[in-house]
Amino acid sequence: MPYSDLILRDGEELVLDLHPHWWYFASAFLVAVGAFFLGLFIWTRHDLPGSDFFNIGAAVLILGSLVWLGERYIRWISTHFVLTTDRVIYRSGVVAKHGIEIPLQRINTIFFSQRIFERLLGLGDLKIESASETGAQVFADIRSPDKVQHDIYAQMEANENRGLEKLGDRIAPQGAAPAAPAAPTATDQIAELHRLHQAGAITDAEYEAKKAELLGRM
Fold first, then answer.
1. How many whole angstroms separate alpha carbon 36 and alpha carbon 34?
2. Can you give the pTM of this predicted structure?
3. 3-state SS, residue 95
4. Which pLDDT score, from 0 to 100, does residue 177 have?
5. Residue 181 lies in a domain
6. What percentage of the chain carries pLDDT values higher than 90?
7. Which among 54, 79, 85, 159 could disulfide-bond with 92, CB atoms 3.0 to 4.6 Å apart, if both were Cys?
8. 213: pLDDT strictly greater than 90
C-alpha cells in the first residue's frame, strides 16, 4: 500500500516510503507455524486420551495464531516512515491512527542504533531530536537505519540551500542600486540651449558661443 501522494504539499517530493522491517511480524509468523505443526501432530495422534479436547484446543490455537499474524501484518502494511523534501512523516494504524510530522528545518540530530542481531538482518532504531514540543522521537524496526540517517541529512542540506536561494531572490531586488541617469547628448543640450534663448534667459552672443562649442563636440 504506497503512501498517498495526496497529502504532499505543492512542490514537495517523496524521497522514501518505508514499512517496518519484516522482523516486525516475524514472531507472530513463527508462532503460527509452530501452532500449525503442533495441531498437525495432535490431529494425527488418535490414540491420545481425550483426543477430542486436544483437537479442539489445537484448532483454537491455530486460529488464534493466524488472527495474531493477520493483525500484525495489517499493522505492518499500514505503518509508513516517510521522508519528503520538506518533512519526516510517520503514520501507523487503520482504525486508531497515530502520526507525527517533523519539518526538516527543525531537526537537530539523528541517531541510529543496531544490536548485533539487528545488524545481521539490516534493521535498527532511529532517534530524531528536533526543536519541537515532542522532543526526541524513536522509530523502531527501520530498514537500513544508517542509510535513512544519511538520506535525511542530505534532504536537510538541500532544504536549507533552497531556503537560502529563496531569501536571496527576495533580497536582491530590494538591495539593487538604482541605475544612474544617462548623460544628456549634445543634441539634447542644443535643444535645451535653444529653449533658454527663446525664453530670453541667455543673450544672442551666449547662445551662439555655446552652440558652436556643442557642435564642435559632435
1. 5
2. 0.63
3. coil
4. 58
5. no
6. 21
7. 79
8. no
